[in-house]
């Protein structure tokens, strides 16, 4: 049975990744097949192969889910992620996004950067720092279940 650190190094299966992030396996598979986010450890290489996601992948997937849950359209989420991956050099879960309707603005320090502009609406500030806490909270029961199964 792998330890918590070994699990993070070896990665997470697609099934566990979907459970941790709070999405369906089908949604995870679609996002990988359409290049929204591909697993960084092991990508699918044909029938029967298994994807392995890193902890950083879990964080990015949770950010995607958070954006979709906030009402941002999938095409806009793709644009936001293209921007974040090329312009945010730190952990993306430390970013702050300001959402107004379908407009997404990245707040970096004292600067606001327009990432996606598609309309008007109520202004919401979406701090992505809670994403890490949410993912970590989902990992604890998973590790407990695995530890109990290994001791049997």
Layout of strands and helices, then pairs:
Elements: H1 4-10, E1 12-13, H2 14-21, H3 25-33, E2 52-53, H4 55-69, H5 74-87, E3 96-100, E4 103-108, E5 111-116, E6 123-127, H6 129-151
Antiparallel strand pairs: 1-2, 3-4, 3-6, 4-5
Helix pairs in contact: 2-3, 2-6, 4-6
Features:
alpha+beta, Multidrug-efflux Transporter Regulator, Chain: A, Domain 2, 4-stranded antiparallel β-sheet, two-stranded antiparallel ribbon, disordered N terminus
Describe the protein in words.
With about 150 residues, the protein is α+β, with helices and mostly antiparallel strands. It has a single domain, classed as Multidrug-efflux Transporter Regulator, Chain: A, Domain 2 (Orthogonal Bundle), CATH 1.10.1660. About 50% of the residues lie in helices and about 15% in strands. It has a four-stranded antiparallel beta sheet with strand order 5-4-3-6. A two-stranded antiparallel ribbon has the order 1-2. The chain is globular. The N terminus is likely disordered.
Instruction: Provide the residue-averaged pLDDT.
Output: 76
Instruction: Give the termini separation.
Output: 11 Å
How many helical stretches?
Answer: 6
Number of strands: 6
What is the C-alpha radius of gyration, as a whole number of Å? 17 Å
Order of helices and strands: HEHHEHHEEEEH
Summarize the structure.
The protein is α+β, with helices and mostly antiparallel strands and 152 residues long.
């Amino acid at each position: 049975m792998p330890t918590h650190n070994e699990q993070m190094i070896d990665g997470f299966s697609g099934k566990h990744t979907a459970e941790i992030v709070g999405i369906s396996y089908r949604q995870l598979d679609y996002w990988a097949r359409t290049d929204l986010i591909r697993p960084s450890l092991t990508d699918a290489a044909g029938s029967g192969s298994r994807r392995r996601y890193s902890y950083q992948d879990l964080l990015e997937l949770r950010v995607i889910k958070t954006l979709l849950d906030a009402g941002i359209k999938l095409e806009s989420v793709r644009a936001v992620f293209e921007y974040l991956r090329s312009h945010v050099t730190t952990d993306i879960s430390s970013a702050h996004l300001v959402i107004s309707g379908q407009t997404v603005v990245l707040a970096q320090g004292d600067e606001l950067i327009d990432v996606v502009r598609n309309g008007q609406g109520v202004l919401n500030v979406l701090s992505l720092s809670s994403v890490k806490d949410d993912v970590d909270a989902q990992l604890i029961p998973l590790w407990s279940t695995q530890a109990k199964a290994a001791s049997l």
